Predict the structure.
Amino acid sequence: MLELLCRSAWRGASRLALLAIALGVALGVAVSAIHRAALDEFESGLRAVSGSADLEVVAARGMDESVYPLLARLPDVAYASPLVERELDVAVGARTLKLRVIGLDAFRAAAVQPTLLPPAGDIGRLLEPGAIFLSHAAGQALGVQPGQTLKLGRDNTAFTVAGWLPSAGSGAVLAVMDIGEAQWRLATLGQISRVALRLREGANRAEAIARIAAVLPPGVHWQTPAQALERADRLSRAYRVNLGLLALIALAVGSFLVAATQAAAIARRTAEIAFLRAAGLTRAQLFRMLIGEGALLGACGALLGIALGHALVALALTLIGADLGAGLVSGVAPALSFDIAASVGFGLLGVASAAAGAAWPARDALMIAPAQALRAGHFGPPLRMLDSRRRTAAALIALLLGVATASLPPLAGLPLGGYAAIACVLVAAVLAVPPLARALARRLPTFSAVPLDLARARLMAEPGFASRSAAGVLAATALIVAMAVMVSSFRSSVDGWLTDVLPAELYLRGDRDRPWVDDIEARLAAVPGVERLEAIRHQSLLLSADLPAVALIARPLPDDAGRVLPRVGASVASGALPQVWASEAMADLYGWIPGREVDLPLAGQSLRVQVAGLWRDYARQHGAVVIDLARYRALTGDTAADDFGLWLDAGSDEEGVARALRDASGKGEALELTSSDEVRRLSLGVFDRTFAATYALEAASALIGLAGIAAAFAASASARAREFGLLRHIGCTRRQIAVQLAAEGLLCALPGLLLGLVAGFAMSALLIEVVNRQSFHWSMDWEVPWDWLAVIVFAMLAASTLAAILGARGALGVAAVRAVKLDD
Amino acid sequence: MLSLTALDKTLPGTPPRVLLQALDLDIAAGEYVAVIGESGSGKSTLLNVVAALDRPDAGRVRFDGVEVSALDDDAATLWRRTRVGFVFQAFHVLPWLSLRDNVALPLALAGVSLRERRQRACAQLAAVGLANRADDSPTQLSGGELQRVAIARALVHRPRLLLADEPTGNLDADNAERIAALLRDAVKSGGACGLLVTHSATVAATADRVLRLGRDGRLHPADAHVDA
């Protein structure tokens, strides 16, 4: 039985189906393995920082160092280790790398974070001025050795590499220096980033936490090391899952291909199957054999995919980085290792999807009556289909299920309901192909041209073939349409959003860690050609230990702030409380809806504010809050500024003004000054590069869909060799058979395309309104690229027709003429 | 009407296999000729060469003054469409067309109007004993019935040359006898040339002449011991 299965599997196999399964498995394994490697290393970095701490006290942008003695004096705390953490740019050749720099107190860290310390003999060197120790990964990434000078940050502050950190995680790119040195040299005087705490043995944890929480000022939180890991995971989860979804789509397309090729292979092997049945193979054995063939094909695809996936991992880690270019996890240089869990998981999914693809045609094979099939002149079993009532019912159920799952809230922060709804839409669309194909064929007139008439008659008689051959085209069209509408809507919304958030002509960007604190505002305003300027202050707020930090943006806002912000929905009139504008992510993650009163931890105090309304923010998916600058300054006393927006006098020389601004700032060429047009160009450039991968995906899915139709027609042509042979005998020219095949390709592809269009629009709605909303918490305005879609439809229609002819070109040859002879 | 002159046909291989060699045959209008021979002797190849589906290595095939063996593929197809009727051992009736549409296929290819081809197809079905079955599906028919449909299809466009390749090979004796008679009547009543290839002595006996394709690639008068 096994031998029979192995031998027969390859005859029915399609290399294309195998490749599609391999691609799906490879993509899934690669995405999972890269992130697992990155997160493992990130985790080891976090563990090094947390050390053996039971708890950590953290704040988004640091806390006053006075918090440390408050904690250290608590009776429940055995050890408290304060840390300063900064992430600094380091120029390495033409590239700029991010280096995580940790300032620590060696005596405190020895009890809590010993892995962050240099070897015992070098610990004393930590106190030397300008001394910095590097992890081996950091030394390797930066290309420096002990004794060499390392320049950090935009100011190129120079340090001397004093030695290595042998116990730091192998992939963690980090550096350690004395905490005092860090505060002094890295401009965080009086500030610390976190305090790692070890509780006394026997301390009541709940009571200890309560006492710790009681001494923490607003904006400072306690967390467990596990919560930090969860937050790190959450940072990239939506991005990771969306990439994983693409892998599942590839597997689904592979499954369609397996179904198409297996169906045709069964038609070709009717006599063989009939003989096996006559020789004693039971229906159950036959079913298992055919499912086994699909599973074997899937297993081969999975093995290929696992190998390909790990090759992709190696390539991606070299070329793009551990976060797949998303900029989510920095300071990490993971090593390539075999990801058993992802390999097994996606490998099994590959096998399962191929076996599922084989199941449908296997049911057809069970219908083969041995006596009839072994008789001469038998043309193969009819394709098995659900009757139209059941099919309609199944499609409706799938649609209803889709509507139900689309309205589910996110699960674990993921739009799983949205994904399920997309799958339901696809299933409903595939179920609707045969009735639509039959209806289209019925409405066609009787052609005087024989090939067209034959194509019409065949489609009417076997609409199931349209379903099998066009499922790939349907899935590909749906994916292309959905992505095209989503990307077009997103791009147009981002374009509009950039106009709203970049009202000034020039933008001066400062160093987030070193805000402008002197009279810079007056100096810039005095520059000839500057009509007016607006200062902008950025802060970071940690509102929950479980969620990433939220951005606070203080900028001048008029009374009707909704006029200058990309407002979404209604707003509330100003009242007694200060008002803030929350991004859509704030509404989703924290429930900050218009009118709600919330506490904002600012300047060490908790301030009651009211949410005036929501605004659209494509820059910060974890949340942002905008407050009027004057109100912020009045509430906090913080008069510093990070960025400036500048409006120029009409007709002024922009370059001349820029030079004057550089001089006035005292920073010269180091000043980051960009026109809003340039920011828009760069932003849209980044957008286009980010979504370039989706264009490649669309092209790949189109090719796979066309390959599906070609494979179906190739296998069908093989099964229909006698039919074409007969037609040639009675006077059909090769051209007429080619026209018949083209017409069949067209008639099969047309329902697939039409339903693909409908499903694509439904999927784009789900992507825009559910998946993006729940993954990234942003809305967008619809923008349908009609001209592009028209091109896609006609190109797919033409390509499907061509694929059908190319796939079935064997039917035009001499072999078909001879196929009418039984003893050939 | 049909004239085969000095036909040669050798299958390439090691060693090459000679199927037809200096083969001559003339069949007059209304004459029905049967060719018998061992399996693999080249009987079907002979039919393919006659139908211009295969080219001889040497020699000529002429029919009604047309040198068929010199026609290119398209011209040969058009000639076959109007002049030739084929009957196969395996029937080759398309399962997704009704009986009437199967029979009407040659007429459709010849550009006959829809109404006329339907009428003629129904009439031809009636002629082979399948009246009132025009709208049936081929899947509902027995082997003998399917072969009658195939014969109706071969005759519906009134071909001048009827070629039959083991037409009774899949039928029982009773059905074989009926089909053989049907073929003979069709040739005789239509004044066509009939060339039949068969293993069956009984079926061959319905022909005007019985020839045996020998291992030497030539046709010989059949002897009594060809098929018992």
